[in-house]
Write a structure and sequence with these properties.
1 helix; 9 strands; Immunoglobulin-like
């Protein structure tokens, strides 16, 4: 009987110690394609930055396609590119080019985005 109670106690402790997913623990997911003249696309590092911290980074493939995903540290974040952005088209509205020209600012509430095309200078 003591063994049975010990197993039940152990089971209850294990259940109570499990962390539950917090709905505030969002992830950013971005996929897209970059283009630019006179550049080797596979050498252009792309990053997601949240709260001044790099949460994901990658290099596009030979066609310019990329996929990034990482945990958000704040509700808004940005896609950081190696060169200034001339133009872009995205699956959702509200994204803007930052004053430095090398970031696309993603507004709150957008955790999944597809950039059909990002044209770099």
């Amino acid at each position: 009987m003591k063994v049975f109670h010990s197993l039940i106690l152990l089971f209850c402790c294990a259940l109570m110690s499990c962390n539950r997913a917090n709905p505030d623990d969002s992830r950013a997911y971005i996929e897209g394609k970059i283009r630019g003249s006179q550049m080797i696309l596979t050498e252009q590092q792309i990053k997601i930055v949240s709260n001044t911290t790099v949460i994901a980074e990658t290099f596009p493939d030979g066609s310019g396609s990329f996929v990034l995903s990482g945990p958000l540290l704040s509700k808004s974040y940005s896609l950081v590119l190696p060169k200034k952005v001339k133009s872009f088209s995205a699956s959702k509205s509200g994204c803007t080019i930052a004053p430095n020209g090398k970031e696309i600012l993603i507004p709150e509430g957008n955790t999944y985005l597809i950039f059909n095309e990002i044209i770099l200078e």
